[in-house]
Amino acid sequence: MPVFKLILAALVSLLPVKGLRVLGYRIFFGYQISESDIGFGTVIVVDSLSIEKARVGLFNLFVGPMTVNVQAGASIGNRNTFSCGYWVLREQYKQANYSRTLELGKNVLITSSHYFDVAGTFKLGNHSWIAGIGSQFWTHGAGVRERDILIGENCYVGSAVRFAPGACIGNHVLVAMGSVVTGALPADMALVGGVPARVLKEDYDWKSNDE
Predict the structure, then answer these.
(1) Which of 58, 85, 106, 123 could form a disulfide with 78 if both were Cys (CB 3.0 to 4.6 A apart)?
(2) Tell me: the pLDDT tens digits for 140-159?
(3) What distance in Å separates the CA atoms of residue 166 and residue 139, rounded to the nearest whole number?
């Protein structure tokens, strides 16, 4: 881990004015931050970062050799961790081709106290929510080949869920609280839940609760 960069980012995160924090990350790290708020105590140490017209709350952590792309209208709450371990750069893991990419679509919402492992790719589709607290998303594991986690558009992921490497859901899907998604569930307009998660209802509109 680049200790100097981590210390510098920590100092930037403690600047008292949000405009100074944005300016510090632009100048010292070369991040592309446009018309966005970076909350107090949010530490960012990544390979590259692009944020456009988004809000990032307090005490978030973005750390690791990864690429971060946050699109317009995105809102990230407080105390979330987005992490890619520097072990992915070791010689013995180069053949594994870890993608190390975080993509948050337009108008997404991530609340607070969630954990995102970004050794692979984590993609959250436009207008989708990671709600509640305490959810975990893992893109690597022993012997895992399919790593990427893909969440479609207009989805709602409830509190305290777990997504295993390679877990994917379609568009307009509600994932019930406490579910464990272990593989691809490509159905659209569905209610997903359970351990392991499965499609519980089809043609389900979570926004209107019209069953």
Answers:
(1) 58
(2) 988 788 899 999 999 999 99
(3) 7
